[in-house]
Amino acid sequence: MVSVQEIISFIETYFPKKLSYEWDNCGLQVGSYSDKVDSVLICVDVTEEVLKEAILLGAKLIISHHPLIFQGIKSIKDDTPEGRIIIDAIKNGINIYSAHTSADVSKHGINHWLANLIGLENIEGLSIKQKNGYYKVVVYVPLDYVQNVLEAMANEGAGFVGKYSHCFFAVEGEGSFKPQEGAKPFLGQVGRLEKVQEVRLESIVSEDKLKNVIKSMLKAHPYEEVAYDIYRLENEISYESLGVVGEREVLAKELILELKKKLNLDFVKASIQKDVFKKIAIVSGSGKDLIKDAYFKGADCLITGEVGYHGILLAKSLSMSIIELGHYESEKVFVDIVYNLFEDFKKKDELKIHKSKIKTSFTNIY
């Protein structure tokens, strides 16, 4: 059994809550961080049908993309669908957690997943939500342990510069220390000044990876007390954004057929202004507010869930094509993304992970 808090901490290493928008409501919606669970259900929307599915499966945690509670509620009663879901979830000991815009913005989230699905290259952010700061981490390591510490830090993301990993700098020197009473030194004796050949090992670490890099570095280092420094840098070369844009030369009709096949869609709606696309933007869910962002990034086409009638008019006036997948249809991959993230975690804790089989898009072709 694993606690709800442990699962949320794991999910938020990929979809940090700080990436969510102010108007959103990501996080634990119903339940307790301390509850223990052995079964999880992943879905796009929490409906009454999905809750019944969780009860039948014995799942004690639902992870949804769309929040169950979006805006403030003044009462919880069984004469509304939302009220019944909350009441029944509590009665059955089911926790409900949402990763909405945090999953839209994250590089591990829906938009990057869709971009990779259709083979976009040179992918960049469409509307920057957050720039990530960088730190320089410097640690002093005895000669025989340099490679161990370097690998431990690199495995957690230290030393990534563009498409290069393991970017470290090392210089050898003499370190000194005198263990005091009560110390258990790896080298030397209590009360005696020790001089050791050490390496000053340094590397760049992005803000979101700093905590895990330090934790891993301390675990790999042999000393009881590790001497290390952390410097804040002015570099701001990483970003998290809502939507992505990338390059691929493809016929409009070919791209539409490809999307239908790869996403298993019966139909898409499209407003096509050019026969050939060279730069394509992607915004899952509602993309209306990012039409101009896509245009100013030079996109020929915006693939999104929906933009509405006026969004189509705006895009046409900019000579930009729109492919509407459907709101649910553009975000249903959330279930597969989260399921795959759990691949290693569930083995470690024998956690059962279920994909919801409830389709929460209720429109059909007639």
From TrEMBL:
Positions of a divalent metal cation binding: H65, H66, D104, H327, E331
Recorded GO CC terms: cytoplasm
The UniProt record lists the keyword Flavoprotein: no
Keyword Metal-binding listed: yes
InterPro entries referenced in this protein's UniProt entry, alphabetically: DUF34/NIF3 (IPR002678), DUF34/NIF3_bac (IPR017221), DUF34/NIF3_sf (IPR036069), N-reg_PII/ATP_PRibTrfase_C (IPR015867)
Family assignment from sequence similarity: Belongs to the GTP cyclohydrolase I type 2/NIF3 family.
Alphabetized NCBIfam families for the sequence: YbgI_SA1388
Protein name stated in the entry: GTP cyclohydrolase 1 type 2 homolog
